[in-house]
Amino acid sequence: MTEYTSIKEILEKTGTYTGLTVGVSMQPLLHEHRDNIIVVRPEGRLEKYDVALYVTARGKYIMHRVIEVHNDHYIIMGDNLLKREYVTDDMICGKLIGFYKNGKRYVDCENSKLYKFYSKLIVAIIPIKPALFFVRRGLGYIKRKILKLFGKGK
User: Are the beta carbons of 52 and 74 closer than 8 angstroms?
Assistant: First the structure.
């Protein structure tokens, strides 16, 4: 069995990488250490809504969604983030083509109508994401206060 030193090397040699996710930037689509991703070496340039795997100058692997395609770069953002990233083709090493939710149900990113709807929706709500995050944070604060209140009442 051949041993590889990086995901990029696996993709270059075999064309496909599978593994568990790390991080929360792609929630609710992908959950850390629960969902098994299938990534392939991309053929040609990526398109809007694709989920790209890229490597930073420091060697960190990041998987985020393409929200804009330009001639010399992409604008990419995690589904659970507000920050946009500018990524060039030479940084891209893979493209998500599918994943297993909780290791069970397979989601085909290239053919699933529900997945494609989700992808378009998550990009469409980008302008209101800051407000949604603010509301979510506020609801979390209220929930913690109520739990603390009832926790003291016992």
Answer: yes
